[in-house]
């Protein structure tokens, strides 16, 4: 089975209304669908663009205001998925969970179903500056194209959580990210390649580009989308199906062949998933 996926290098820019945000998102969706894509990935924290909207009496909005957009966000992307008959991983949005802020990814199905995965590992900036709380567990999601997991940015830097996702049957890891400099970007990029090799899975990665001059900690972004494979003969050199141009406003698209994953897990040059030493270290059960 082949799955066509698109990753959006979302260009953050100051907007005046929620409608501006929705129109920009719809533009990317329509552009991706020109290539008959089946899954569209938006980046982490892309809804912070809403904080560039002027608040009451011109007062700047803060991260604590972002959950007030949750209802509109959910309604908008539910409608997009149904209208365009496409799966959308709508980046992450900050929601309120029992009075705590939580950075949460959402998957919108074409039939109107919505599921979510909170970010499990929280960076120091998220804790100290935005008072974020950690997610409480890992989910995997069945689709008519296979089983997937969504691990956000910092999550991909932890081998254990990706191993758990693979043990639960995920063949594709979608990784929305948001990094503001080269160091952060390369931490996420390099570890995405490592996770693809270790677990013989695909990783679909993207990040924010552009800037939000009026939004703290979103003033600069360094991003590039990539569609990453295991490193073995059936796949392209460097384990890379596609990548964008760094910091450009664009979309990358590629086909993921699940049969190739199954082949290399059994008969690849190396069989990293099969050869793990569960007699020496525990596996998820």
Describe the structure.
- The chain has six helices and 14 strands.
- The protein is of the alpha/beta class and 285 residues long.
- The chain has one domain: Carbon-nitrogen hydrolase (Nitrilase/N-carbamoyl-D-aminoacid amidohydrolase), CATH 3.60.110.10.
- Strand 4 and strand 5 form a beta hairpin.
- The longest helix is centred in the C-terminal third of the chain and has 18 residues, at 182-199.
- The mean pLDDT is 96.
Key descriptive features of the protein:
single chain; 285 residues; alpha/beta; Nitrilase/N-carbamoyl-D-aminoacid amidohydrolase; 6-stranded mixed sheet; 14 strands; 26% helix
CA gyration radius, whole angstroms: 18 Å
The proportion of residues in beta strands is: 25-35%
CATH H-level name... which superfamily? Carbon-nitrogen hydrolase
Which blocks of ≥5 consecutive residues have pLDDT under 50? Answer: none
- How far is it from the N-terminal to the C-terminal residue, by CA? 27 Å
């Amino acid at each position: 089975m082949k799955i066509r996926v698109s990753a959006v290098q979302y260009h953050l820019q100051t907007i005046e209304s929620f409608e501006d945000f929705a129109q920009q998102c719809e533009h990317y969706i329509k552009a991706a669908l020109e290539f008959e894509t089946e899954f569209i990935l938006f980046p982490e924290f892309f809804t912070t663009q809403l904080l560039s909207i002027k608040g009451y009496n011109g007062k700047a909005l803060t991260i604590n205001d972002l959950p007030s957009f949750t209802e509109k966000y959910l309604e908008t992307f539910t409608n997009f998925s149904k209208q365009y008959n496409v799966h959308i991983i709508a980046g992450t949005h900050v929601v309120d969970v029992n009075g705590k802020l939580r950075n949460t990814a959402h998957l919108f199905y074409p039939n109107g179903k919505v599921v979510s995965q909170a970010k499990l590992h929280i960076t120091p900036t998220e804790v100290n500056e935005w008072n974020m709380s950690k997610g409480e567990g890992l989910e995997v999601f069945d689709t008519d194209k296979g089983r997937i997991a969504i691990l956000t940015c910092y999550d991909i830097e932890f081998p254990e959580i990706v191993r758990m996702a693979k043990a639960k049957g995920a063949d594709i890891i979608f990784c929305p990210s948001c990094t503001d400099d080269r160091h952060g970007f390369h931490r996420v990029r390099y570890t995405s390649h490592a996770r693809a090799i270790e677990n013989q899975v695909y990783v679909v990665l993207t990040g924010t580009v552009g800037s939000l001059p009026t939004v703290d900690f979103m003033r600069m972004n360094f991003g590039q989308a990539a569609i990453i494979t295991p490193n073995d003969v059936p796949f392209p050199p460097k384990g890379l199906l596609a990548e964008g141009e760094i910091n450009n406003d664009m979309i990358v698209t590629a086909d993921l062949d699940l049969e190739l994953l199954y082949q290399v897990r059994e008969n690849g040059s190396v069989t990293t998933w099969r050869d793990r030493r569960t007699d020496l270290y525990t596996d998820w059960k």
